[in-house]
Design goal:
alpha/beta; TIM Barrel; ten-stranded parallel β-sheet; 12 strands; about 45% helix
């Protein structure tokens, strides 16, 4: 049996190109397309709507939107609207964002676990057509419901996936989420620890961790020339190691290398700085954190992530997107 695969789109391509890639992925049997709220470049909802409008079967997930900048009631209304456009195909992927970006726009990420619990529970209740009154530390709702007037009042089939990197958030995902989006630029060994904590949270809620969907973002650089593929991935690895501490911490990269990269990159980094810092990142680090190389190399690396707990790769394409889709069309995990 072919193994499922999904594609991840951020902001590297014009939205109309993304629409074409999504249609192509659907014809090749891909399970889902995931779109991020990427840094402060691209909102997730507009492209998700575009992808949904030109497809029929592929699932459309936010991978991820943050929990701070949309009120829970508005978040529920937004994903209810997406479900109107693509009934039964929409996934709400939500995460706790990251510093320094959140700090720079005035958001204090204190108590992210409590905030996420309140938000997920409230959004789920609203999507389930409940009237919600809740006075929490982060969520205050007073008799709120999705105010349907011109459509049938019904629960919306929108599963909620928690984008978790740290282990406390992983436990919360096991406790309350329908799925967990495992992060990228981590080694497959990271998954083993993540699954242990997912299982711990699931056990607290009387659930089995195996029933929780576990798609994983995987940076994927495919080229018949292995060196070309690694070089394409090296720039992205460098930028994330230098600028996203939550991924940095989980990556498994030696602290000495992280310090050296951090000395070169400022925020936001220029392309010239990223290129300079990338010279510090050896091939073995690129290979540890990404699925890069020939098509066979990439498939073999993705199998490692799945062996260690992922259920479906969400492939972040670098280079030729259609070549990557072809490499994972009908593949076997």
């Amino acid at each position: 049996m072919p193994s499922p695969a999904a594609i991840y789109l951020q902001d590297a391509h014009p939205i109309r190109e993304g629409m074409e890639y999504t249609k192509y992925a659907e014809t090749k049997g891909f399970e889902a397309v995931w779109q991020a709220d990427s840094r402060l470049v691209r909102d997730a909802i507009v492209p998700m709507s575009a992808f949904a409008s030109v497809t029929d079967t592929i699932k459309i997930g936010s991978g991820v939107v943050d929990c701070w900048t949309r009120n829970p009631a508005r978040l529920a209304a937004t994903f209810s609207t997406l479900d109107d456009l693509a009934p039964g195909r929409v996934i709400l992927g939500i995460g706790a964002w990251w510093d320094p970006l959140a700090q720079k726009v005035g958001i204090n990420r204190a108590k992210p676990i409590r905030a996420m619990r309140e938000i997920i529970n409230s959004v789920r209740a609203l999507l389930h057509n409940e009237t919600v009154t809740f006075q929490g530390e982060f969520v205050q709702l007073d008799g709120v419901e999705l105010d349907y007037v011109y459509q049938d009042r019904r629960p919306k089939d929108v599963p909620i996936y928690l984008g978790a990197t740290g282990m406390q958030m992983m436990e919360l995902a096991g406790e309350i989420a329908d799925g967990v989006v495992l992060n990228y630029l981590v080694s497959p060994d990271y998954n083993k620890t993540a699954i242990e904590h997912l299982a711990k949270g699931a056990e607290r809620a009387g659930r089995k961790w195996e029933t929780i969907d576990r798609p994983q973002l995987v940076v994927c650089s495919v080229h018949e020339d292995r060196k070309t593929a690694l070089d394409m991935a090296r720039l992205m690895v460098t930028q994330y190691l230098g600028q996203q501490p939550h991924i940095m911490k989980a990556s498994g990269v030696p602290q000495s290398l992280l310090d050296k990269v951090g000395e070169v990159l400022t925020w936001p980094a220029t392309h010239k700085q990223v290129e300079a810092a990338s010279k510090l990142v050896p091939d073995e680090i690129v290979q540890m954190l990404t699925a890069s190389g020939t098509p066979d190399d990439a498939r073999a690396k993705v199998r490692e992530y799945m062996r260690d707990g992922a259920t479906c790769p969400i492939l972040y394409p670098l280079g030729d997107v259609k070549a990557m889709i072809d490499a994972f069309s009908g593949w076997q995990a």
